[in-house]
């Protein structure tokens, strides 16, 4: 039997409009930029991957342009000619020559899994050991910047039975204004929804200690990354004093970060993101560290398009516990999809594909239309 080899890697930068501005503490998104990877194998199979970040370099250390350059210049020469079916060996070659760059790695690992799944006739969740759920409950982020608009948007999502978990992006204004905004939304939604906040590192420890107390009093269920990512001890102190559980997000930029946060008791909940760990297999290493440390899990997003979202979904489907559910709504924030078969959201859940690989088929016409030249 001749084993298929990796023949080529092609990266495309794709700019897609968002349905409305999406306001985060560090950046307001008017569109989203995806890096799509097409990894072609000698048996004619193509694996597809995605690496997507938020706001150029505003969120993390890799930009769409650096991801493309680094895959083209450094990853591709390491992979071309290697066996397509040996993901362990391929990722080990990358480990030996590339530091960091978890977003670019994630696209590569995803594309290898997609290709392997297509070759073996297995969905990626099954390659990862098998799914223990067929769908994932998905939160929606309210981030229009306007309290009334956010309440209307949440009511619409409840009526559609699409979301009943809402994450509010705060941190760009005075904490008192943000707390009033959050409390008004929680009052309007009551027990019909779980309301959570994401501060995206915007507060100091002193502000966070008071604000977390007030958010707890307002009925908020979860507080994501209230203070900067670097200081594990400060995160542990804020966490110990908060009446509402704290979730680590930006603090995790690698599997090793997950270990250090778990060791330091920094947060009782971790946001899992394939891009921050280096792929669907890599993110499971962070998940297992958390599990062993008694830390609860949440399936996070970098607001990826459909490819990255489904890659995440396949990985999260295999976890024995996902107590805080997921926020895999990225495709719903975009006006266009680059897939022929768009992800299915129904009854508050994203359904996990059952066809081989990720279960994605690229829409060539749309890809060409939105691809940056
Ligand atoms: C983040 O910080 O969690 C996830 C949802 C959203 O609206 O922003 C992202 C990034
Ligand atoms: Mg976050």
Q: Output the number of helix runs.
A: 13
C-alpha end-to-end distance: 40 Å
CATH architecture of the largest domain: Alpha-Beta Barrel
Large-scale geometry: globular
Widest beta sheet: strand line-up: 5-6-7-8-9-10-11
Structural domain count: 2
| DSSP, total strands | 13
Family: Belongs to the mandelate racemase/muconate lactonizing enzyme family.
Protein name: Muconate cycloisomerase
Pathway: Aromatic compound metabolism
GO molecular function: chloromuconate cycloisomerase activity; manganese ion binding; muconate cycloisomerase activity; racemase and epimerase activity
SSE layout:
Blueprint: E1 6-23, E2 28-41, E3 46-52, H1 64-79, H2 87-97, H3 102-120, H4 124-127, E4 135-137, E5 140-142, H5 147-159, E6 165-169, H6 175-189, E7 194-198, H7 205-217, E8 222-224, H8 232-241, E9 246-248, H9 255-263, E10 269-272, H10 274-277, H11 280-292, E11 296-299, H12 306-316, E12 345-346, E13 349-351, H13 364-370
Parallel strand pairs: 5-6, 6-7, 7-8, 8-9, 9-10, 10-11
Antiparallel strand pairs: 1-2, 2-3, 4-13, 12-13
Helix pairs in contact: 1-3, 5-6, 6-7, 7-8, 9-11, 11-12
The chain binds [(2S)-5-oxo-2,5-dihydrofuran-2-yl]acetic acid and magnesium ion.
Keywords: Aromatic hydrocarbons catabolism, Isomerase, Manganese, Metal-binding
Pathway: Aromatic compound metabolism
Protein name: Muconate cycloisomerase
General description of the model:
The protein has 373 residues and is of the alpha/beta class. It contains 13 helices and 13 strands. The chain has helices spanning 64-79, 87-97, 102-120, 124-127, 147-159, 175-189, 205-217, 232-241, 255-263, 274-277, 280-292, 306-316, 364-370; strands at 6-23, 28-41, 46-52, 135-137, 140-142, 165-169, 194-198, 222-224, 246-248, 269-272, 296-299, 345-346, 349-351. Helix 7 (205-217) links the parallel strand 7 and strand 8 (222-224). The longest helix is centred in the N-terminal third of the chain and has 19 residues, at 102-120. The structure holds [(2S)-5-oxo-2,5-dihydrofuran-2-yl]acetic acid (MUC) and magnesium ion. The site of [(2S)-5-oxo-2,5-dihydrofuran-2-yl]acetic acid (MUC) has 12 residues, from loops.
């Amino acid at each position: 039997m001749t084993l298929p080899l990796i023949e080529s890697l092609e990266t495309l930068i794709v700019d897609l409009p968002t349905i409305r501005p999406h306001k985060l503490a560090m950046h307001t998104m008017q569109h989203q930029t995806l890096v799509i990877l097409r990894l072609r194998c000698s048996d004619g199979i193509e694996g597809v991957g995605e690496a997507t970040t938020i706001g150029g370099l505003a969120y993390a250390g890799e930009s769409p342009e650096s991801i493309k350059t680094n895959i083209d210049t450094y990853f591709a020469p390491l992979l071309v000619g290697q066996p397509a079916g040996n993901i362990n060996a391929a990722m080990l070659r990358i480990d030996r020559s590339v530091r960091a760059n978890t977003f670019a790695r994630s696209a590569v690992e995803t594309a290898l899994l997609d290709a392997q799944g297509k070759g073996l006739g297995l969905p990626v969740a099954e390659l990862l050991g098998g799914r223990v759920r067929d769908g994932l409950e998905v939160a929606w982020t309210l981030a229009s910047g306007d309290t009334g608009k956010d309440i209307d948007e949440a009511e619409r999502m409840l009526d559609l039975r699409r979301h009943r978990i809402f994450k509010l992006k705060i941190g760009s204004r005075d904490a008192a204004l943000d707390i009033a905004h959050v409390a008004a939304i929680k009052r309007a939604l009551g027990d019909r929804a779980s309301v959570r906040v994401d501060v995206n590192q915007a507060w100091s420890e002193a502000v966070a200690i008071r604000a977390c107390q007030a958010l707890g009093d307002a009925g908020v269920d979860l507080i994501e990354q209230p203070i900067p990512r670097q200081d594990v001890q400060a995160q542990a102190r804020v966490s110990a004093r908060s009446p509402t559980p704290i979730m680590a997000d930006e603090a995790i930029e690698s599997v090793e970060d997950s270990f250090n946060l778990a060791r330091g008791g920094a947060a009782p909940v971790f946001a899992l993101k394939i891009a921050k760990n280096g792929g669907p297999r890599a993110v499971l290493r962070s998940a297992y560290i958390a599990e062993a440390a008694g830390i609860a899990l949440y399936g996070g997003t970098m607001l990826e398009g459909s490819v990255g979202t489904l890659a995440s979904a396949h990985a999260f489907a295999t976890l024995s516990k996902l107590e805080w559910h997921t926020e895999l709504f990225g495709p719903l924030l975009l006006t266009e999809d680059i897939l022929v078969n768009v992800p299915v959201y129904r009854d508050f859940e994203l359904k996990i594909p059952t066809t081989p690989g990720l279960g994605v088929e690229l829409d060539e016409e749309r890809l060409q239309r939105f691809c940056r030249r």
